[in-house]
DJ-1/PfpI family protein
Amino acid sequence: MKRNVAILVFEDAEVLDFAGPFEVFAVSSQLNAGRGFDVGLVAEHRSPVRAMNGMTVVANWTWEDMPAPDVLVVVGGRGSRQAMAHAPLRAWVAQAAAAAEVVLSVCGGARIVGALGLLDGRQATTHRQAFDELQAIAPAALLRRDARVVDAGRIVTTGGISAGIDGALHVVSRLLGEPVAQRTAAYMEYAWDPACAVVAPVQ
């Protein structure tokens, strides 16, 4: 069974936050004879999205035509603060997250996930410079300042930027098995340590 992976992008999203997980899910499917994931970027509109530092991307799907995601990736970057306050985006993320098998929050994407109450009572992590801000947004979240990846059941959160690669590899390992994740990391020449993920009890 192929799972749909939707990676949310918006203005001033952090590039590696979405590009790293995209590569992980796409490569894992490529190395698994096309089985695994149908991965794409999703945005509010088809018009180009200007990510941080000037990269422009066009999403594969809009919120309206995106198949129901099995894996939802919510990224960070400077624009996550504005995204967090954008009511239509919040509504779409809440709806997609409710139906998803796994929600992967990368870096400051935890702001958006936390603002929706999805981190309440769960252990979570984020970029090291955003911990205090996230705690204010989601006071009921149990922040792990020592963790690169936190697996709290349906919600998986990661530290800053490159940690999204680790988080995506962890999700691949959960859904397709660690050998597939290890092959993916080896192909990418990425030094992945499965032990970087903390599996936290869900309250």
